[in-house]
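Re: beginner question about structure tokens

> Can someone show what the tokenized structure looks like for a real chain? I only ever see the sequence side.

Sure, here's an example I had lying around. Input first:
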Amino acid sequence: MADQITLQVTRYRPEQDAEPTVQSYEVPLRREWVVLDGLNHIKDQVDGTLSYRWSCRMGVCGSCGMTVNGDPKLTCATFLTDYAPGPVRVEPLRNFPVIRDLVVEIGDFMRKLAQVKPWLVRDEPPPEEEFRQTPAEMDEYKQYSMCINCMLCYSACPVYALDPDFLGPAAIALAQRYNLDSRDQGAEDRRDVLSAAEGVWACTFVGECTTACPKGVDPAGAIQRYKLTAAMQSLKDFLWPRGSR
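And the corresponding structure tokens:
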């Protein structure tokens, strides 16, 4: 195995660059090194001006998402040896405005996330004793609770690429995480957002979001599941208008 590999890194410095450029760096190729290790080597040893996000290095925080050889990846979990002999292209996540180098602007995602109220909503106080759930109740939402807000699904989503108003895979999956929680009473609060034209109905079920997800959340499955819920609720509203109940 070669002892070095080339990283072709996207650079964009708005104070001097009109368009992004590509800069190549040689980094050590070690079996235990991930793409993030290569970027850290560049930052620490070669070019301190390189900008990118990272935090935990353990696939938990979701902050180090980038595009690696055309695919959205967590760079802390993407091994350089899988791309040997190289080169390895490292670009910002697609479908987001680039602030600098590999750093993207995530305000749109954060605003959409807040719209679905990704927290437990209660119309009444919880019981004073411990609010227990059965294993079956927890299994209903556990898969969707694994989302780490890495935004890889948004980068992979062709609908979001064409329609920035689309609520997006992660936001919908997290809404389902709480809709399916036996302790939550906020499904009605989330309904108008999820059932809107830019909500679940904008999804064409390509499934790239589920393919890109590093935690097995299956956002595409969450979206299709809520489509059924929304359709059933619309039928009930048609047959039994709220005022007649």
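Each token stands for a local structural state, so reading them left to right follows the chain. The chain has nine helices and seven strands.
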